[in-house]
Design a protein that fits this description.
- The protein is mainly α.
- The protein is built from eight helices and no strands.
């Protein structure tokens, strides 16, 4: 399940293998490619780093098909790409909606 989820998360966050490799301190994309092909699974420390990058739970990343379990609106992925001013606007709007919802 990890291989499928890694590819799903990387594409969901519009991230190339090279960018993920750099975030993980890897020199090439070969390891990322091997993980996505299911040839290898990273060690726990690296799994933790990957989970942190994509803001997911390690257990879910290993056992759950995230492509079916994820929020279809992908708000976190969109929010993360916004600049600070736009993040503030979205945050304030979300607080207003939440207050109305209650």
């Amino acid at each position: 399940m990890f291989a499928k989820n890694l590819r799903y998360l990387r594409t969901k966050f519009d991230m190339e293998q090279k960018e993920l490799a750099e975030k993980l301190g890897r020199k090439s994309t070969g390891t990322i490619s091997d993980w996505e092909a299911g040839r290898y699974t990273p060690k726990l420390g690296t799994l933790s780093d990957i989970a942190s990058i994509f803001n997911v739970n390690i257990d879910k990343m290993m056992k759950t098909d995230l492509s079916k379990a994820e929020d279809p609106y992908n708000i976190i992925g969109v929010y993360d790409k916004l600049n600070l001013e736009n993040k503030r606007t979205i945050y304030n709007s979300a607080l207003e909606l939440l207050a109305k919802q209650k």
